[in-house]
Amino acid sequence: MAAAGPRFGEPDDRTPDPGLFGPGSATWELHGDPIALVGGLRALLLQALHPQVMGGFVTRSDYRADPWGRLARTAEYVGTVAFGTTTEARAAGDAVRRVHRRLGLDDPALLMWVHASLVDSALQVHRRSGAGLPAERADEYVAEQVRAATLVGLQPADVPRTATELAGYLAAVRPQLQATPEAREAARFLLLPPMPARVRLLTPAAPAWTTLAATAFATLPGWAKRLYGGSLLGPALGGVTLPWSMIDELPGTVAVRAVRATLGALPPSWRVGPRQRAALTRLGLPAAA
Which of 67, 191, 197, 224 is most buried (most C-beta within 10 Å)? Predict the structure, then answer.
């Protein structure tokens, strides 16, 4: 939940720099998979369960006024760190740190929760999607993401380096978590974001988004879903009836595999982000098929 404000410029598709990770890295594998979008939404739902993170976000963020802009900036930051040049990644981290510092959101404990939620969500969604992720590859990903954590000001020695360490951190923080009214409102906002009437009624955008968000909810750990009320139709949404909400009744693994298959069938122009395309171009690698 990076604070509002930073912009990261046009992607560099000329400098032959692989960036912080590069081809063959676990980060490129996970973040380059279309199912990473669901992982990002899961991370937001998980992050919201930390009362201090959510409280600071609500009082200092513009997510209600500009929800799509907030989501786009967060996705752009993650893409820049994963696929940008080293210079781009560091500049993005500096920009986010300046915003966090200005808004008082630079507490290392809170930054760690945001980081761990992102990493855990990427791992869990990728694993359950059928993409395949051996234990040693999962550890590679967690270790690589220490570099991303340092960009926002965390000390490398404090950041989990293996999947086991990450799980231990999440278990230690779990007693602090709760679905506050602010967290429930954020979940409601994420699952049913405002859309222009013509978009909601005349395009598939609303059911498509709801499917992605509902799948993200379905892949949350059971304890997190129980905090939210256990169901997309429960207290988390204040009784709002969602189209396609039956996806919450399906096992999360079945849901996320179906979504990955659907996303994977889209043309590359839809499923490959601009930062990833720029990275492939500047390194002379073939475009995604």
Answer: 191
247 Cα distance to chain centroid = 20
Residue 252 falls inside a structural domain: yes
Domain count, the chain: 1
- Give the residue numbers spanning the domain of 62: 26-282
Helix locations, the chain, DSSP H: 26-31, 36-47, 51-60, 67-83, 86-103, 108-128, 135-151, 163-173, 181-191, 197-202, 205-218, 222-228, 252-264, 268-271, 274-282
**Cα distances (Å, whole numbers) of residue 247 to 29, 121, 229, 272:** 26, 18, 16, 25
Six-digit token string for 228: 């939210």
In angstroms, what CA-CA distances link 34 with 64, 111, 159, 219? 26, 26, 26, 16
Query: Tell me: the pLDDT tens digits for 42-91?
Result: 999 999 999 999 988 777 766 667 777 778 888 999 999 999 999 999 99
Q: Which of 232, 5, 174, 213 is nearest to 96 (CA)?
A: 5
What's the rounded Cα separation, in Å, for the pair 272 and 253?
A: 23
Please state the φ and ψ torsions of residue 31, each to the nearest 5 degrees. Answer: -75, -15
Residue 56 in domain: yes
Instruction: Specify if 9 maps to a domain.
Output: no
Q: Which two tokens stand for residue 37?
A: 């979008």
162-201 per-residue burial string, b: 16 or more CB within 10 A, e: under 16: bbeebeebbeebeeebebbeebbbbbebbbbbeeeeeeee
pLDDT in tens, 159-172: 999 999 999 999 99
